[in-house]
Amino acid sequence: LTVCMIVRDEENNMQGFFETFQSLTSHFLIVDTGSRDSTKMICKKFGCKPVDFLWGDDFSAARNFALSMVTTPWVLMADVDLRIHRKDADELKRYCQDTTDTNLVYLWSQFFDQKILLPRMWKTSLKLSYLYPVHELLNVTENVHPRVSEITLEHHHHDQKDFTQSRQYYVSLM
């Protein structure tokens, strides 16, 4: 399993991300879209060499670039502010070893007081990709045999102000 994500200037979130997701895998593919802080140095501290990607205001392009480099049978597309509990990481590992035809796993994302279900983990043999520059959508094909998990990944935003600034940026890209 490779955990993929795109980042930029996320020094405040990187350590917490690695500390929780290390219990899931040792394979991380981090695509950096132009960090000017210590994000890359923190990645290296955790044994991960971030790959540079020239930012073009398109989250799908950056995610698809990351996906193009994954070499493991499974991929989990994460966000830097996500956290996973140890018991849930163990459950996801079991999904990767499952011999049924499941090839896509939907995970819950807890975001402040909202909980949403998203396709986060799948077999790379599906060759899935993302659509749309903002609020990117995974282009799910007809060969998918999904499993809906009870696992919840928790978002750890610093505060409402941080969330509001992010939202304003996303709206500017639409």
Explained architecture:
It is a single chain. This protein is of the alpha/beta class and 174 residues long. It is built from 5 helices and 10 strands. It has helices at residues 11-21, 39-45, 59-67, 86-97, 160-173; strands at residues 2-7, 27-32, 51-52, 74-77, 82-83, 104-111, 114-123, 129-131, 137-139, 146-155. The strands form 2 sheets. It has an 8-stranded mixed sheet with strand order 3-2-1-4-7-6-10-5, sandwiched between helices. α1 runs parallel beside α2. It is globular, with a radius of gyration of 15 Å. The mean pLDDT is 90.
Write a short abstract of this structure.
This protein is an alpha/beta fold. Helices cover 30% and strands 31% of the residues.
Highlighted features:
5 helices; 174 residues; globular; alpha/beta; 30% helix; 10 strands; eight-stranded mixed β-sheet; two-stranded antiparallel ribbon
Distance between the termini: 32 Å
Count of β-strands: 10
**Fraction in helix:** 25-40%
Largest sheet: 8 strands, mixed
Strand order of the largest sheet: 3-2-1-4-7-6-10-5
The overall pLDDT, averaged over residues, is 90
| SSE pattern, N- to C-terminal | EHEHEHEEHEEEEEH
Question: Structural class of the secondary structure composition?
Answer: alpha/beta
| Outline | globular
**Uncertain runs:** none
Summed up, the helix count is 5
Rg, alpha carbons:
15 Å
Strand content: 25-35%
Describe the secondary structure blueprint for this structure.
Blueprint: E1 2-7, H1 11-21, E2 27-32, H2 39-45, E3 51-52, H3 59-67, E4 74-77, E5 82-83, H4 86-97, E6 104-111, E7 114-123, E8 129-131, E9 137-139, E10 146-155, H5 160-173
Parallel strand pairs: 1-2, 1-4, 2-3, 6-10
Antiparallel strand pairs: 4-7, 5-10, 6-7, 8-9
